[in-house]
Amino acid sequence: MSDLMMGIYLMIITVADATFKDMYVLHDYRWRHSHACSIAGVEGTLSSITSTVFIALITVDRFLAVQYPYGEVRFNVRTMVAAVVITWVCGAVAASLPLMPFAQDWVIFSNSGMCLGLPFNEKRLPGWQYSALMFVAVNLLLFIFIGIGQYRIFKIIREKRKRTKKHVNRSNRLSQNQRLQEIAVAKQLSLIVMTNFFCWFPIITMGIVTLSGHDLGQLIYSLSATLILPINSALNPVLYTLPALKKKWDDFRALKREVHKARKSKASVDLTHLEKTLGKKSDTRRMVLLKSKRSTRALRQALLKTKRGTFAESDLKLMYEKVCQHLLVYSRN
Q1: Are residues 63 and 190 in the same domain?
Q2: Do 214 and 75 reside in the same domain of the chain?
Q3: What is residue 94's predicted lDDT score, i.e. its pLDDT?
Q4: CA–CA separation, 122 vs 120, rounded Å?
Q5: Taking every annotated instance into account, which residue ranges of this chain make up the domain G-protein coupled receptors family 1 profile (predicted)?
Q6: Number of structural domains, the chain?
Q7: How far is CA 144 from CA 87, 120, 195, 228, 239, in A?
Q8: Which residues are CB-neighbours of 114 under 8 A, at least 6 positions away?
Q9: pLDDT average, residue stretch 177-197
Q10: Based on the domain organization, do 181 and 321 belong to the same domain?
Q11: Long-range contacts of 134-138 (CB under 8 A, 24+ apart)
Q12: For the chain, what is the radius of gyration of the CA atoms?
């Protein structure tokens, strides 16, 4: 949802760019103080805040899953819903603060044509504390928290790998598979955290540099708002989707192998039963037995050809019925 918010922000900026084109200099002031620019600023700020908070919540959930693999301590559904609702409500309130009556003098969304309150202006304009708090302080603290959580997760995984024995009995095999799944999810989360870190670390660094009194220029502001921040939102759906698709493909291949193994085992049992039955020799049944043995050899060759794709399964079925008929005659005689 937070990535969708960033998409809406980019769509508003794109429509404004296509509308004004080469005449933007004539409409700069009107655009920066318009309702559309304010809405775009709220969308972009809300996306930035909630995205990082959700990653922090996921980090806590993964830490609990790895630390307590048997579910002794875990988020229940009510707790997760409450955390999500609180995050969205607090994020919406924080993103809408520049639009409140007491903040009419703040220069946040109208600071730039990108309508995003990034703290990249060396001038201490009214409301600069808000930009520094939302885009530098909050994100910096959250990423320190996420970094500590990731370090703890990897430390726990490494310790459990050292304690894990090579041979596990059948009773704890399910728990072992569950732990491996939790480790795989933790690795996926680490990749998502890394992309978010490489997105926000430049923003935080440039914000600190600007607050120190250095001017980075409007080009850096535009690149940060239209390139660095959206890359994170564009990559997150891919990072969430690809592992799920890979897991489904692996499950499909495993199921296919099991079906093939089951068919092969059944065919082998049928042929073994035929050979044992035909192995009982008798003088009165020698002719029928000879025909049955020949049919069995032909059936085995047909089965091999069917596996190679050079023999039709319908013909194999007819040949199998023929062998069964010979066995029926053999048993009656």
Answers
A1: yes
A2: yes
A3: 92
A4: 6
A5: 1-240
A6: 2
A7: 19, 22, 15, 20, 22
A8: 13, 221, 222, 225, 226
A9: 69
A10: no
A11: 134/45, 134/48, 134/49, 134/94, 135/48, 135/203, 135/204, 135/207, 136/203, 136/204, 136/207, 136/208, 136/211, 138/49, 138/52
A12: 34
**Distance in angstroms (rounded) separating the CA atoms of residues 143 and 195:** 12
Q: How many helices (H) and strands (E) does the chain have?
A: 11, 0
Q: How many angstroms separate the CA atoms of 38 and 41, rounded? A: 5
Same domain, 174 and 38: yes
pLDDT in tens, 44-60: 889 888 988 988 888 88
Convert the pLDDT of each residue in 237-263 to its tens digit: 777 677 667 777 777 777 777 766 766
| pLDDT confidence of residue 171 | 47
* Nearest 10 degrees: Cα torsion 254, 258, 261, 266: -170
Same domain, 184 and 230: yes
Phi and psi, residue 159, nearest 5°: -65, -40
The answer to whether residue 76 scores a pLDDT higher than 70 is: yes
Full domain range(s) for residue 67: 2-257
Rounded mean pLDDT, 213-232: 73
CA torsion, ordered 302, 303, 305, 307, to nearest 10 deg: 160
Give 273-302 as a DSSP string: HHHHHHT---GGGHHHHHHHHHHHHHHHHH
End-to-end C-alpha distance for the chain, whole angstroms: 77
Domain presence at residue 272: no
Is the whole model's pTM more than 0.85, yes or no?
no
Nearest of 105, 114, 85 to residue 17 by alpha carbon = 114
Higher local confidence (pLDDT), 135 or 265: 135
Please check whether residue 107 is in contact with residue 125, taking contact to mean a CB–CB distance below 8 angstroms: yes
Residue 295: exposure state from Cβ atoms within 10 A (0-12, 13-18, ≥19): buried
SS3 113: coil
Average pLDDT over residues 294-301: 57
